[in-house]
Amino acid sequence: MGPVQLAAAATGTSRDGGSLLAVHGRIDNAHDLAASLTPDGLPRHDASLLLAMIRHRGPDELARCRGAFALAFRDEGNGRLLLAADPLGRRTVFHARIGGLLVFSSRLRTLLALPGLPHDLDDGYLAALLSDVVPEPDATLYAAIRRVPAASTMTVGADGTLAVHRYWQPDWGRRIRHARDETYVEEARALLDQAVARQLRGPGPVVCELSAGLDSGAVAATAARLRAPATIHALTLAPPDDAPRFNHPTIISDERPGAAAVAALHPNMVWEAVSPRGLRAFDHDPRHVFLTMSGPARNVMNIGWFAFLMDRARTLGARAVLGGTLGNMTLSWNGHSGLATMARRGDWTRLWREASALGRATGQSTAAVLRRRALKPLLPARLQSRLDDYRGLPRPAAERFGAIHPDFARDTAINERRLEMGHDYPGCTETMRRRWLGRIQTLPPFLDPIGELYGVELRDPTADLDLLEFCFAVPDEQYMRGGTNRWLARRVLADRLPPDVLNETRRGFQCPEFLHRMTLQRDRIVEEVEALDRSALASRVLDVARMKRLAADWPTDAASTNFGEYGATLYRGLHVARFLRWIEGGNG
After folding, report:
1. Most buried residue, 67, 138, 218, 535, by CB count within 10 Å?
2. Cα–Cα distance between 146 and 167 in angstroms, integer?
3. Which conformational region is residue 99 in: left (phi greater than 0), alpha (psi within -120 to 50 degrees), or beta?
4. Strand 80-85 and strand 101-105: pairing?
5. Which strands make up the sheet holding 207-209, listed edge to edge?
6. Which of 461, 150, 427, 459 is nearest to 332 (CA)?
7. Which residues are paired to 94 by β-bridges?
8. Residue 191 CA to chain centroid, in angstroms?
């Protein structure tokens, strides 16, 4: 193994005697950590702070860090190397071996640029990407490269042996109990304020993404309150008025009215709508996306769509845009899984009361609610799947609308993994939380690639770990009450969002004009799909025949064309196909 040579550090380094630490990212609660570590309580540089924490208290102290970070620590005293990823895996360390040399970096692209490193794809990871299935925690798209799992450290011994240790996980048995419902609201508000305040630090104007939903509204409205009377900017993506778009009674296809109502409550919030007109360069030629992300993007349609909002944010001088991407999994958890939890623990009186109320609110019988949301989720996913097949119900959307070739799916046993992981089948609250956390923690780290692609950083206060740990410990009955889901969020945000947004039951829909954007590229899409047969790799991995049928049978009614077949199967499938053809080294 030999001594460590530091080739580059993106954020900072610190030395102390024979120890060296390099960190990439940021620590959001550095001041608090420093106060507990040093007598004067003054914040240190993140690298020196982390070095002191690990040397004096050990690597498990990383569980107290809030933020998105990856680090490498070398202690010459014991000859070991320590690599670490933040708790949600938003930044991590990738590592590989070239001969007898261990190479590592917080950027996948750095390793791919090294001579002698194979670029062979990992079939299991590729199948998971195409099927919306959680891959192995340390897997990447490339067979020769692994990652340090989220919330973990990896120790490399002097003899080259690797040992992975998990330093953080939620306390799944913790439950917060208060005598008053209002106390939960007060605590959640304080944690939301703290989470947003942590992300407001830094130069440049404050710019927030604002939809008509609870999560981005929570972030933007809280930022406005914290910064008042200083100006903050709120940007809403909306389809052009002349663009046909998908519409359905359960979705919000134009979020401008709701966003405008939020802005009207906050005099210091300057609001504007941004309409994505036309296409971006990487809609036609995705190689820049491939280079930046070191592979294909899962939500490729939204990359081009969000670029218009990011352009406007950059024009305003912003270095970061605040949003609420993970709010559905934390503050605005809908509470439906709580019925199964009540059934599991035998809380029959509360279960009957809540199931009856939800039935009245949704027009279903109490028996139907109990069967669907309380009893079925307690069954293993395999049995749920068999029951659905017996009743003639459709398979989960992620399974129906994947572009994966059936033979490739069978060879990689990806549907077996789907059932093993319980994907797309309901469960009790702890089960659903565990699945959600596992999915987030195994996503490809996207903060750096997105920042490079757009020139603006994304920040998400709803992913704050203090807020997450609180929300995971809040009892189920705080999330659903009397047939009202997201009950906690609706009360928490009542002091900063208008009633129309608080009481909204429809869900937002990103890029509702997806068919319009695809139609602008129709000739190229049809041409490239027809050429996929000439790619041995794409033909093995993708269901080319299905993609050809979809391209030939182009829909004309945007309002009734759901995203599944065209946005997911065809468009996302073609994006992956373009990547596969690109790495084959030619035009197929």
Report:
1. 218
2. 19
3. left
4. unpaired
5. 269-274, 232-237, 207-209, 320-322, 457-459
6. 461
7. 105, 147
8. 20
User: Residue with structure tokens 């001579």?
Assistant: 115
Q: Which among 89, 58, 90 has a CA at the least distance from the CA of 73?
A: 58
Q: What angle do CA 544, 547, 549 make, to 5 degrees?
A: 110
Burial 141-163 (b: 16+ CB within 10 A, else e): bbbbbbbbbbbbbbbbeeeeeee
- Proportion of the chain above pLDDT 90, given as a percent: 85
**Euclidean distance between CA atoms 469 and 196, whole angstroms:** 16
347: closest CA among 537, 477, 495, 520? 477
Listed in sequence order, the residues at least 6 apart from 41 whose beta carbon sits closer than 8 Å to its beta carbon are 31, 34, 35
**Cβ pair 522, 570 in contact under 8 A:** no
- 3-class secondary structure, 274: strand
The pairing of strands 232-237 and 207-209 is: parallel
H/E element, 456 = none
User: What is the DSSP pairing of strand 80-85 with strand 152-156?
Assistant: antiparallel
Radius of gyration of the chain (CA): 24
By CB neighbour count within 10 A (0-12 exposed, 13-18 middle, 19+ buried), where does 180 fall? exposed
CB 361 within 8 A of CB 484: yes
For β-strands 101-105 and 146-147, DSSP reports them as unpaired
Q: At what angle do helices 465-473 and 181-199 cross, to 10 degrees?
A: 160
Q: Which of 64-68, 280-284, 438-442, 499-503 is predicted with the least confidence, judged by mean pLDDT?
A: 280-284
What tokens does 446 get?
């996207």
Q: Which residue spans within 333-463 are E strands per DSSP?
A: 457-459
The H-or-E segment that residue 324 falls in is: none
The more confident residue out of 585 and 219 is 219
Check whether the bond before 229 is cis (ω within 30° of 0).
Answer: yes
3-class DSSP state of 460:
coil
CA 21/CA 3 separation, integer angstroms: 14
Question: Environment class of residue 36 by beta-carbon count within 10 Å: exposed (0-12), middle (13-18) or buried (19+)?
Answer: exposed
Per-residue confidence band for 54, with pLDDT thresholds at 50, 70 and 90:
very high
Nearest to 341 by CA among 404, 432, 407: 432
Contacts of 422 (CB under 8 A, 6+ apart): 380, 381, 431, 435
DSSP alpha helix (H) spans, 58-180: 108-112, 123-131
Task: For residue 308, give the amino acid letter.
Answer: F
pLDDT of residue 298: 87
* Structure tokens given for 581: 């053809």
What's the burial of 173, exposed, middle or buried (CB within 10 Å: 0-12/13-18/19+)? Answer: exposed
How confident is residue 165, by pLDDT bands cut at 50, 70 and 90?
Answer: very high
Question: Does the predicted TM-score (pTM) go above 0.85?
Answer: yes
- Please count the other Cβ atoms lying within 10 Å of the Cβ belonging to residue 79: 14
DSSP 194: H
H/E stretch holding 222 reads helix 214-227
Q: Report the run of H or E that residue 82 belongs to, with start and end.
A: strand 80-85
Instruction: Name the region of 421 (left: φ>0; alpha: ψ -120 to 50; beta: rest).
Output: alpha
- Tell how far CA 424 is from the center of its chain: 16
Q: What distances in angstroms separate CA 513 from CA 212, 237, 254, 502, 505, one per listed residue?
A: 17, 11, 10, 25, 21
> In one letter, which amino acid is 59?
P
